[in-house]
Amino acid sequence: MTPMNGAPAAAAAATLPELPPEAESVVDAFRRQVEDLVSKTDVLERRVNEVVDFYDGKKHGSSGRKAGGGSRGGHTRGMPDLMRQFGLIMREITSDKLAWPFLKPVDVKALQLDDYYKIISKPMDFSTIEKKMEGKDGTKYSSVREIYSDVRLIFTNAMKYNDEQNEIHLMAKALLGKFEEKWLHFLPRVESEEKRQKEESKDVAPTNTCREASIAKLAKVTDEELNEINKQLDELRKMVVQRCRKMTTVEKRKLGAGLCHLSPDDLSKALEIVAQDNPSFQTKAEEVDLDMDAQSETTLWRLKFFVREALERQANVVSGKDENAKRKREIVSALAQTASKRIKRQP
């Protein structure tokens, strides 16, 4: 069964018979029910997005800022500003004439320091610190105190590995003293920011708890309403099929012709409809032999409705019209498939 695209879709749609006037009123009633369900679905879609956005924000640590307006200027600016200010201190240290041995990692191999890693458990240098400050290696400092500890480690490593009279030891000791003096002047600002954040987190926590409880309730209600819509869609599908008469041989032939004009995606969906009532039907085979006479009336009429809409949709896509209706049909179709799958899983 080979799908066809483009202009033939419009002509193929015409091969399917028009419904008689008395049936049109029934179809209109069903269509109104579908539109009502689509309207409800739009509302539920916005709720789902709200729930997803909240938990995404919580996962990335931003739910507190969204929930508590007072924290907007704090966590986002306070600590990063301190890190930038601390970066100025680092530049003063690294620009010192004694700093050159500590700018890059120790080249253990070139210097033949075979015992270096036995003595130094955590090597550190300024280039490594700068990369971590910029997040280049996938890790990033969360506080100024972490950077302070690593800068201090650079000099204590050098003093630990080299003897007290060694030139590198003396250079590290001199720079450490200079760095510690600058840190003591900078420390009050760090402590002030840490205190402010601690107090702020106390105010934000209750707000976050209330917000999360509200979102959890919204998620529960939305899930219940989605389940109800799925039930309504399934009932609507059953009502439509029950009203259908037995399909004639001519209609089956025209239905088969319509299937041949479907796009590859729509053809796959049509074959899935067949497989729902016939689990042994192979939808993924390269060649599919579909016997119309062997299908149930339910399957035949579901196929007919699907093919009619699919061919009309293909014709509209070609002409560039009815994009909004296309979106609504896709939503309803997705919900209908979900409902069908759930019902089949029930014992």
TrEMBL record:
Q: Which residues form the Bromo domain?
A: 94-169
Keywords, ordered alphabetically: Bromodomain, Transcription, Transcription regulation
| Pfam families in UniProt | BET, Bromodomain
Cross-referenced SMART domains: BROMO (SM00297)
- The record lists the membrane-crossing segments as none
Q: Where is this region: Disordered?
A: 59-78
Please list the residue ranges annotated as the NET domain: 237-318
Protein name, as recorded? Transcription factor GTE1
Origin species, per record, is Eleusine coracana subsp. coracana
